[in-house]
Amino acid sequence: MQLLNLVIAVKTLLCVVEGYTIRSSVSWAVTNDVVDEELDTHSDEAPAVLVDNIGIWKQAYPSSVYRDGSEKKPDQISKSEDVSSASRVFSYRMEEVKAPSSIPTPPPHEETARVARYMAHYSDWGHLATISTQEQIKGLPFGNIFSVSDGPADNSTGVPYFYVTPMDNTVTDLRSFPFASLTFSEAEGDFCRKQVYDPEDPRCARLTLTGKMVEVGPDELDFAKEAMFSRHPVMKKWPPGHKWFFMKLVLQQVWLQDWVGGVSVIPLEEYFKATPF
Fold first, then answer.
1. ∠226-227-232 over CA atoms, to 5°?
2. What does the pLDDT look like over 83-129, one tens digit per residue?
3. Three-state secondary structure of 39-100
4. pTM check: above 0.70
5. Triad 234, 238, 244: Cα angle to 5°
6. Which residue, 136, 178, 181, 252, is most buried by CB atoms nearer than 10 A?
7. Summary mean pLDDT of the chain
8. Within a 13 Å sphere around the CA of 28, how many CA atoms are in the beta-carbon half?
């Protein structure tokens, strides 16, 4: 009798399971038609995330870039084929990145100019603050994240370069008022994590560069391309229809906090004379 009850329970469970589909360990009831549709379009969970129909990159790239129009079923698509067709939109061969084999440890905190140059050179991205032109927050501060480079891995200038599009709200802000502040945090790398420093801990250095954002002129356009594309090679694949162009931050102030007990405003002459290496 107990065996019979167990068999009935198992059959009941299997019937219930047939009406569910699993996504990221979360289940919900679906019809058989929906299950068939899901199986057609989500053969691998990771690639499915990359080609999500509502993803922002759907708007920027033609469908042929990330989805095969034939809508192959999972058993017709090899894993390598599916991953490569999606990931090539967002990624690049690692050997293309001309980065140092290892990031050196930060300079001693008392060498403030070197610390500032170190952070400006080894940071791949920063937070840029502008005065907003957006209607609902016009005249208020607005922050945005940008990939940056102060030069190729072996050539630090201390001047941050950017690759931007006029479609970005921040670029609209800069055309109205070209001054901005760019902030880096040492929390971007592994140093603060290894030291168990909170990002707001003064010993986890933060650097703010303030100045005027200007478009890069023809005389240094080649250097700006090398600076950005050697550190962020995926940028070369970004859609040309967005009219990308290069900008740089002409510095007026270098503000640094890298230890307990106050901040340092580093003279520009000392900043540019220092080296991050």
1. 95
2. 444 445 445 555 455 555 578 999 999 999 999 999 999 999 999 99
3. HHHCCCHHHHHHCCCCCHHHHCCCHHHHCCCCCCCHHHCCHHHHHHHHHCCCCCCHHHCCCC
4. no
5. 115
6. 181
7. 78
8. 4
CA-to-CA distance for 177 and 175, rounded, in angstroms? 6
pLDDT band at 150; cut points 50, 70, 90: very high
Tokens of 236: 């070369």
pLDDT at 10: 53
Distance CA 227, CA 123 (A): 13
Closest CA to 51 of 91, 85, 93, 81: 85
**Residues in CB range of 41: below 8 A, 6 or more apart:** 48, 71
pLDDT at 89: 46
Tens digits of residue pLDDT in 26-80: 333 334 444 344 334 333 333 333 333 334 334 444 444 334 444 444 444 444 4
C-alpha atoms less than 13 angstroms from C-alpha of 209 in its C-beta half-sphere = 30
